[in-house]
Amino acid sequence: MWIGWFLRILLVIVGVRAIWKFLAGIFKGVRGPGRVAPQSVPLVRDPVCGTYVVRSRAVVLRQGKQIEYFCSETCRRRFGR
């Protein structure tokens, strides 16, 4: 008999917590974002393996006016073949 009451109380607690979380999310959405979104980082695609790399960290190969970006020295060597 006490197990039935315990389960009912537990169910009420879980229900109240779910409603509380739901309402908190709504109010947070109404107030707007609390943080500023991070700046985007330009990515470039390696022409050999297709990996996207942060431009500032990529291995660069300049051929005249054309610039190629690679994820590693290995891909840069493979490109030159």
Which terms summarize this structure?
single chain; two-stranded antiparallel sheet; 2 helices; 20% strand; alpha+beta
Order of helices and strands: HEEEEH
* Overall tally of domains: 2
Summed up, the helix count is 2
Q: How many E-type strands?
A: 4
Describe the fold and architecture.
The chain is of the alpha+beta class. The strands form 2 sheets. Strands 1-2 form a two-stranded antiparallel sheet. A two-stranded antiparallel ribbon has the order 3-4. The chain folds into 2 domains: 36 residues; 38 residues, no CATH class. The longest helix has 30 residues. It is built from 2 helices and 4 strands, in the order αββββα. The protein is elongated.
Summarize the model shown:
The protein has helices spanning 2-31, 73-80, and strands spanning 43-45, 52-54, 59-63, 66-70.
SSE layout and pairing:
Blueprint: H1 2-31, E1 43-45, E2 52-54, E3 59-63, E4 66-70, H2 73-80
